[in-house]
Amino acid sequence: MTIQTGRTEELISLTERSTAHNYHPLPVVITEGEGAWVRDVEGRRYLDCLAAYSAVNFGHRHPDIVDAVRTQLDRVTLTSRAFHHDLLGPFAQELGELAGKELVLPMNTGAEAVETAIKVARKWGYEVKGVPEDRATILVADGNFHGRTVSIVSFSTDPVARTHFGPFTPGFTVVPYGDPTALADAIDHTTVAVLIEPIQGEAGVVVPPAGYLSQVRQLCDARELLFIADEIQSGLGRTGATFACEHEDVVPDLYLLGKALGGGVVPVSAVVGDSSVLGVIHPGEHGSTFGGNPLACAAGRAVVAMLRTGEWQRRATELGEHLLSRLRPLVGAGLLAVRGRGLWAGIDIDPALMTGRQASEALLAEGVLAKDTHGSTIRLAPPLVVTPEEIDLAVGALSRVLANAR
Ligand SMILES: *Cc1c(COP(=O)(O)O)cnc(C)c1O
User: Cβ distance 249 to 242 under 8 Å?
Assistant: First the structure.
């Protein structure tokens, strides 16, 4: 759709010749970003409505985050956990306080936080709950996305994520998302935890029925299970709250955080919980060379400081209402459905008009970056620094794209 000049074509072709084809990027080559905007190698500007899957919640190169990281670059960047450094304690304390939990286990990527939680839940199951050795099961939801490791794709319900990657890790039971009865029926004496996204991101911003999260919490309490909330995409301001679980006043046993925790600068993830759960892990049993490194802690502390004021959460709520109010009139005019929470929307394009990929390419030509999740569903997640006028610009582009296809 976009007119590609030599430079764009050259760089795309170089990338395609030189990297494994595990992604199918849109045909734009970004070279700069600031706030909600990026610039490509041709000098064209685009409004970023994906924000690196919410990893760039605070906008590209937010000055507070960049300053914190730049300052740290001049001190020390990596020590490993063989030694203490002066930022891990403060970061963990501040993040724990934000989450209302006692302990933080720092890792790097989201998938590592999920893997960590699986290990913690199993160990807790054997040592605290008394589940028979090597029998622990974790309940997960269909349509889930928790990452790409072998164990995580073992309980994916997406055939593309799984096919030819077996043999799979046992110990997971998939139940329908949003259905507390099915969840209750799946619990047995081997169950140690329920692992869910409070809102399913990759599935297309799927908000569960009201009351679901609190019913999960009640079931976990009644049956002595850990409630593990994967807030890697939903957390840290995106939905108008620090954690999406807050919308139902639910406090999980473990929060899984990632993406925006690194401020869009470095990969930072964490498992956050109380010592009654995270305390099962002892030296040597789990770790990561880069987990909790000084640079990561500097970025993470800046992010936590920003979230402490509540300002970003309020902004996401207000901008989200604005976004949804602008999107809703498009239902019946090219969109089949719109849903969301905070500044996070899933839109289903009428598949008779075009695929999500085609819509994303057409939006690109209009100067808006968005990406299909699957089929004809697109997720809109602009950085929280976006303005109402910029949201109008994005929705205007979308309505033109839909009108042109009709
Ligand atoms: C992105 C994501 C992950 C995986 O994070 P990576 O950093 O890509 O490993 C896990 N869970 C959810 C809900 C995510 O959105």
Answer: no
**99 pLDDT tier (thresholds 50, 70, 90):** very high
pLDDT tens digit string along 125-144? 999 999 999 999 999 999 99
Classified as helix, coil or strand, 320 is helix
Give every strand in the sheet of 269-273, ordered side by side: 103-107, 269-273, 254-257, 226-230, 191-196, 137-141, 172-175
Strand order in the sheet with 377-380: 335-340, 345-349, 377-380, 371-374
Q: Judge if 182 and 295 occupy the same domain.
A: yes
Look at residue 374 in the predicted model and tell me its pLDDT: 87
Do residues 220 and 184 lie in contact, with contact meaning Cβ atoms separated by under 8 Å?
no
Q: What is the pLDDT of residues 183-198, one digit of tens each?
A: 999 999 999 999 999 9
Q: In sequence order, which residues have a C-beta less than 8 Å from that of residue 178 and are 6 or more positions away?
A: 141, 206, 208, 209, 212
Which residues form ligand 1's pocket by a CB distance below 6 Å? 53, 109-111, 114, 145-147, 197, 201, 230, 232-233, 258-259
Active-site option among 40, 48, 230, 253: 230
Q: Which of 308, 337, 370 is the last residue of a domain?
A: 308
* Residue 275 CB burial class (10 angstroms; 0-12, 13-18, ≥19): exposed
Q: Which of 152, 162, 53, 153 is nearest to 112 (CA)?
A: 152
Based on the residue annotation, tell me whether 227 is a catalytic residue of this protein: no
Is residue 83 part of the annotated active site? The answer reads no
Instruction: Kindly report the number of other CB atoms within 10 A of residue 294's CB atom.
Output: 19
Q: Of 292, 308, 324, which residue constitutes the final position of a domain?
A: 308
- 327 and 390 co-located in one domain: yes
Q: pTM for the whole thing?
A: 0.98
CA atoms within 13 A on the CB side of 240: 16
